[in-house]
Amino acid sequence: xxxxxxxxxxxxxxxxxxxxxxxxxxxxxxxxxxxxxxxxxxxxxxxxxxxxxxxxxxxxxxxxxxxxxxxxxxxxxxxxxxxxxxxxxxxxxxxxxxxxxxxxxxxxxxxxxxxxxxxxxxxxxxxxxxxxxxxxxxxxxxxxxxxxxxxxxxxxxxxxxxxxxxxxxxxxxxxxxxxxxxxxxx
Amino acid sequence: xxxxxxxxxxxxxxxxxxxxxxxxxxxxxxxxxxxxxxxxxxxxxxxxxxxxxxxxxxxxxxxxxxxxxxxxxxxxxxxxxxxxxxxxxxxxxxxxxxxxxxxxxxxxxxxxxxxxxxxxxxxxxxxxxxxxxxxxxxxxxxxxxxxxxxxxxxxxxxxxxxxxxxxxxxxxxxxxxxxxxxxxxxxxxxxxxxxxxxxxxxxxxxxxxxxxxxxxxxxxxxxxxxxxxxxxxxxxxxxxxxxxxxxxxxxxxxxxxxxxxxxxxxxxxxxxxxxxxxxxxxxxxxxxxxxxxxxxxxxxxxxxxxxxxxxxxxxxxxxxxxxxxxxxxxxxxxxxxxxxxxxxxxxxxxxxxxxxxxxxxxxxxxxxxxxxxxxxxxxxxxxxxxxxxxxxxxxxxxxxxxxxxxxxxxxxxxxxxxxxxxxxxxxxxxxxxxxxxxxxxxxxxxxxxxxxxxxxxxxxxxxxxxxxxxxxxxxxxxxxxxxxxxxxxxxxxxxxxxxxxxxxxxxxxxxxxxxxxxxxxxxxxxxxxxxxxxxxxxxxxxxxxxxxxxxxxxxxxxxxxxxxxxxxxxxxxxxxxxxxxxxxxxxxxxxxxxxxxxxxxxxxxxxxxxxxxxxxxxxxxxxxxxxxxxxxxxxxxxxxxxxxxxxxxxxxxxxxxxxxxxxxxxxxxxxxxxxxxxxxxxxxxxxxxxxxxxxxxxxxxxxxxxxxxxxxxxxxxxxxxxxxxxxx
Lengths: 186, 728
Fold this sequence. Notes:
The complex is a heterodimer of chains A (186) and B (728). With 186 residues, chain A is of the alpha/beta class. Chain A has one domain (2-185): Purple Acid Phosphatase, chain A, domain 2 (4-Layer Sandwich). Helix content of chain A is 15%, strand content 36%. Chain A has a six-stranded mixed sheet, with helices on one face. In chain A, strands 4-5-6-8-7 form a five-stranded mixed sheet, with helices on one face. Chain A starts with a strand and ends with a strand. Chain B is 72% helix and 1% strand. Chain B has a two-stranded antiparallel ribbon with strand order 1-2. In chain B, α1 packs antiparallel against α2 and α2 (32-44) crosses α5. Chains A and B meet through α3 of A and α23, α25, α27, α29 and α33 of B. Chain B: Keywords: Cytoplasm, Golgi apparatus, Membrane, Protein transport, Transport. Chain B: Its main location: cytoplasm.
């Protein structure tokens, strides 16, 4: 099952739109669920992700007005996946602090955002994913943010993680798409 | 369709079917005499006067289809050695004129193919003979049959039936003139009370007349010169002399549609000179608009084809002025003409913006003398089109900024229409670099309220969509030069600052974000050393940011607070520790004065804690002041579990390796960390008494372990064991 992990769009507060190159990649027939770390920050964005999959899970970011939960646990196949924006987890982005949240939620995978910098970590056999900001939204924590999101191919005992990133190429304004593939199993 | 009519049609079709069957059987037995007899019987059905044009057409199609068998037979006869001239004479013995002429045309078609006589002569004979039928509908269909049979046999360049295209033209012009007369005559038959029905029927039949012009336009041999001297004048002569409104309207439009644009360009004077001679009911405006739009599209597609020796703009301008000057047109119609003129000018001479603006000035006069302050109805619609045209016409929406009279026209529109135009402009502009001030002036209805419009009644959702668009636009206000970028932001805030509470919520956030980004860029320039192009300082940009956030504070205190915290992160990054301190202080002031919702208080305390932890450039004493304050707020939260969690979260602030004293010591105060943990433990105890909140203990225990492993000597095994006892 292919699931999109995404967050921190912050449209229109901090970014104009999702990059066209990403929009072309994201097609509704392929994506069977969306795990959103929050801070979409506008209805348009939420509708956009709902149009990709009606199975949409959102948690509350610090710039969200909606009535979303702070954390959420989603079961997909054999996996317990925890979702949290991450601004509540102080120090922000700290691995040990995230590990405490992972233990609280008792999950196999913890997906958080807030830093606007994608990262995939395995810590004490648990998987930590931060999909970054899909719009490359401006951030006080990370300089020169690159737009990114993560696709998860979830099978019973195996996860394949695809990281999509748009990097500024040396040759001018055009952004270059970079895809990484990682594997994880219980 | 009335029942009687349906019955007549069915009866007619039944007879056609039966007679066609007999005809074909006779032909199979090579019995030409009987074949012609049954064929005539079948054709006699077309003598009916009972059917409406649509029903007649159905019957006609059926008959014409059957006639192909007869034509095929004639062809075979010819191949067997029969002279066509004999047959041509033979069929003229048929008793009734309608079948006789249909048969004659059918034989004529094969006669031409046989080349026993020149096509020109046969066609001429046929087109003359058809005069025998003067009943309008029957005549029109008969001549349509002639056109159909002659279609591939017209003399033309490269045709095997004669290469002199003039013969082809003569034939078609002759037939066209006759058909037009028949068609016009329909108008004057029957009682006056049936006029409406008659006009409807005429419209159903117009395409039969127009087919002549289509055939003319298909003749290869006609070039622009020939069109100018031999074709168009003859068509126009018919158009004028028929003095019929329906015919004139239709034919003028058909001329525009069917002949190539190159021809129109060479004959504008002739064509336009005809317009004033048309009947008073003819919608000349529609004709002009159609012509201008068509030519504009052509000019865009094939700019090289435009002849340089004709001043198109002047020609159309003078005609349009004559029409609008005559005072016979409604305001909306006058405006429609100007819209077409603008579209035409933008297509034909994209660099002649002065002309476009001149046209807009004419519109401004029209609207001024009209006297309404806000338009409605068709005039409103036309004005919206007028303003949209330069935006979409040549893919360069910025054109509008070079048109001094453009923005002035906006004021005649009611708010929703102005928003419609402005929204289109924003969409078109989103991808382009723009002089911000003129742009914002233009999109003003989206940016602020104007008294004359009365209360703005957009609902929340519309407002949100619109303002989100504007917010997205702000992210496109970009300049690589930092001074220019600053000037853009200052100019933009002047506009957005007036937007009122419902708008600034959307617009000031991106403004702040852009300002922070600029501050960071300026700081990098400052750090870079050497000569800077810009003169603006990072401090000044932060000052601007602070003011902008303050502008939002009364309407949206929580948002402003969050922006202060965000801004402090950037100030810290830029080494501006005093500014960072000031920004956080501003956040605290808002927290204390404006935030009363306990749930939001909890969120904000955690966010402040997260932010403060990253402010590593602060003077340790300043840092101490701010985190102590935060911890105090944490302990004062309304709900006990919130207090508990906020206080243990604040413990991290006292264990911060990032913040350093001058002598290099880090800000890691084990004692105060422990104080926080002990305090949250006490609160957790209280919580346990009211409800079984064991999770809190686990969370706190996790912190004890965290600090134990991190080397905080004050947190010893003793505390961990005590803590474990609490919930075991």
